[in-house]
Each structure stands twice: as C-alpha cells, then as structure tokens.
Amino acid sequence: MAIDALTGFTPILTVSFGLFLLAIIAAVIFFDVAKLRIPDSLNVLLFMGGLAQALMLALSDGRSIHVAIGYAFAASVVCGALFWIVRLLYYRLRGHIGLGLGDGKMAAALAPWVHPANISLVILAACRTGLIYVLFARGREHFVVRGGRIPFGVFLGLGLIVIWATERVVS
After folding, report:
1. Who's near 121: CB < 8 A, 6+ residues apart?
2. pLDDT at 9 over 80
3. 150, 144 in Cβ contact below 8 A?
4. Minimal CA–CA distance to 125: which of 149, 97, 152?
5. Which of 89, 107, 106 is nearest to 98 (CA)?
6. What element of type H or E holds 150?
7. Which among 29, 71, 36 has a CA at the least distance from the CA of 50?
8. Which residue from 165, 160, 99, 156 is spatially nearest to 133, judged by alpha carbons?
9. Are the CB atoms for 7 and 61 separated by under 8 Å?
C-alpha cells in the first residue's frame, strides 16, 4: 500500500496524515501512561485515519479503492488476531494476562497505516523499545507500583510513527 504507492501522493496530504497520526498517538501515550488503558475511541480514530490514508493513496495512484480498503481490513484482522492469540497463549502458559485488550485493538488499528510487510517492523520496534524501557525502569518505584505492567501502547505508537515516516522517506 504505502511503499510503492506514494508517487501521486502530494506533500500536503502526507503532512496532514502525519499530523493526524501524531495527534492520535500523543493521546494514546497520554492515556496509556496515565491509566494503562487505551480508549476505544482513540483506536477507532487511528483505524479510520489509516483507512482514509489507504483510500487517498489508491485514489492518487489510480488503483482500485476496493482492493486498497480490502487490504487495509485484512491487515487489521490478521494483526488483531495475532495479538489475541499471543494474549491467549501467554495466559495459558503463565496463568495471568500479559497483553492488554487495548494493545491488541491498537495493533489492529495501526495496520492500515503501513505497508502490510512492514507491520512486523512496527511490532519489532515496539518490542525493542518496550524491552529497553523495562531494563531501565526495573526496580524503580514507578515500575514496582504498577506491578511491573508497562504501557505497551506507547511503544506501538512510537514504532508506528518511525516506520510510517520511514516509508515516506524511502519511497
């Protein structure tokens, strides 16, 4: 979707979608850090923004909007299902929830924003930054008070921004 399709996408649209994405991710970060929760309304806005971008990319390149929207939905379903499976497997193995529902919904909602092949890079970036956070936060009062829970939506959002921006520079 995004990598090979930006030839007709104007800079003003890129900036507009980028600012929208930054605003949504900033709100996600605020809520996730404060309450360890990602509101459904923000996930819906994130998803709708990604669909709008997929639609605009298709229109700017003369591609079928049905195919572009279909790919966006399929990527979201697959990504959300994978997070749900990881959540279920972790619960079966460890006996407690290790991944919040909001994180899974956010993973599904971010899928339309990047090329389907790059969704794994978003998740990889999120996991790496999350691990770095855990290494530095471990033992500190704030981390211990939360019972070791981390705001993973923050790291998903940061990974999305980095990969989305990289796609725009590389293409």
Report:
1. 114, 159, 163
2. no
3. no
4. 152
5. 89
6. none
7. 71
8. 156
9. yes
Token reading at 49: 């923004």
- As a whole number of angstroms, the distance between CA 117 and CA 126 comes to 16
Q: How confident is the model over 39-64, as pLDDT tens digits?
A: 999 999 999 999 999 999 999 888 89
33-114-70-25 Cα dihedral, nearest 10 degrees: 20
Contact by Cβ (8 Å): 72, 111: yes
- Mean pLDDT is lowest, of 23-32, 56-65, 79-88, 100-109, for 56-65
This prediction's pTM: 0.90
Give the pLDDT score at 1. 44
Alpha helices in 95-140 (DSSP H): 101-110, 119-137
Length of the chain: 171
Going by C-alpha positions, the residue among 115, 17, 24 that lies closest to residue 68 is 115
What distance in Å separates the CA atoms of residue 12 and residue 1, rounded to the nearest whole number?
18
